[in-house]
Amino acid sequence: DEEIDSDEADIENEDDFFEPEETPEEKTIRLAKELIKKAEESMDPDEVNTALTHSALSSQGRFISPIAEEVKDLSTSFAKGHLLGVTCLAVSSGVCVTGSKDCCLIVWSLETLQKLHIIKGFRHDKKCGGHSDEIFGVAISDDGKFIVSGGKDRIIRVWDGRTYEFLDAFKGHRDTITSVKFMPFSHVLVSISADRSVKTWNCDDMVFLDTYFGHQSHILDLDTLPGERALTCSRDCTARIWKTQEDSQIVFSGHTESIDCVRAVAYDTFVTGGQDGSLSLWKINKKKPFKKYQNAHGGEWITALAVLKGTDLVASGSSDGWVRFYKVGEAIQEVNKVCVKGYVNALEFTANGEKLVAGISANHKWGRWMPDIKTKPGITVIQTGVKLTNEILSN
């Protein structure tokens, strides 16, 4: 493995683009109101305090705590669920929702690994009440009110986050929907597609908001940032930050092949993984990565990334049989790894970092080549050995 410095490529005169819409104080007040309301709807008070502090500090671009080196004594638990491979997942308040090539969504308890609910879909049955083709994106709003999903049938479906009843459908994409994500502490939804577009929707009013173009090939992954910003990556070998309120974007390039996954680390930092097998760490004021970690999974494609936002902890998945953990900052340093068989098509930490959930498949998210026939579809829950607490957050 080799770490390389990138060429310096500063972005000049971009202060307005990156300046937050709110002051930290305004952000804290708004987040407090949102989370207190959520607490009144049965969320654990400790979780509210942790999430509030975490979100307020990470929105300012601060590392909350250097915890990556605490990832020790890793253990895993596996639960089989879907008939076909898991392609996507979302985690919130002790539950995980997975989407699959079997057209179904499963809601899991992360405490017991039991299935709480199944939202069924059937291939080519447009009247089934669920998805009629493979699902590639799922998201849960921060307050748990909405679950949304999208995939090959080109329809975004909105579900009640508590009863799992169908609420509405958004149509507009002309090709496979590859990911969906809510803006932080908002019911504004962002969707991306193989049609090369980024779209925004309002789940409160169930209306379409806007469309953005710029990528020259399929958009493959998505994350969101404070200040109504979206972060995307594509087969065109670029990552982009979109300031949706002003319809502006900035382009980042540095991978030699398709960028398949992207995650925000902090307000001013993000990480990407691609088919060239490398991890790249970026600052939003530089168009080239400032650190690169080659052959992170022995030359295999990087298929999934997860970040415990506001900390220095990043995880990656591939098809080499390992989920790897890294400390990021001035360098990218692998600190641990755990054996996970099959293709890791999705990764996400719980809010406190105690668990990392991996979506497992016998084949790659976007195809059926080189299947691992011994792998059963489902989720692997990794106990990380770390846990963000209010005491850690205040340090």
Keywords:
395 residues; mainly beta; 5-stranded antiparallel sheet; 4-stranded antiparallel sheet; 10% helix; globular
Q: Span between N and C termini?
A: 33 Å
Q: How many helices does DSSP assign?
A: 4
Helix content: 10-25%
Low-confidence stretches: 1-9, 12-20
Quick check: average pLDDT? 88
Shape: globular
Structural class: mainly beta
Strand coverage percent: 35-45%
Compact summary:
The chain has 395 residues and is mainly β.
Describe this structure in words.
The strands form seven sheets. A five-stranded antiparallel sheet has the order 1-22-21-20-19, with no helix packed on it. A four-stranded antiparallel sheet has the order 2-29-28-27, with no helix packed on it. β7 (135-140) and β8 form a beta hairpin. It is globular, with a radius of gyration of 19 Å. The protein contains four helices and 29 strands. The chain has helices spanning 15-18, 24-40, 45-58, 390-394; strands at residues 2-5, 75-80, 86-92, 95-100, 105-109, 115-119, 135-140, 146-151, 155-160, 166-171, 177-182, 188-193, 197-202, 207-213, 219-225, 229-234, 238-243, 248-253, 259-266, 269-274, 279-283, 291-294, 304-307, 313-317, 322-328, 332-339, 343-349, 355-361, 378-383. It starts with a strand and ends with a helix. The longest helix is centred in the first third of the chain and has 17 residues, at 24-40. With 395 residues, the chain is mainly beta.
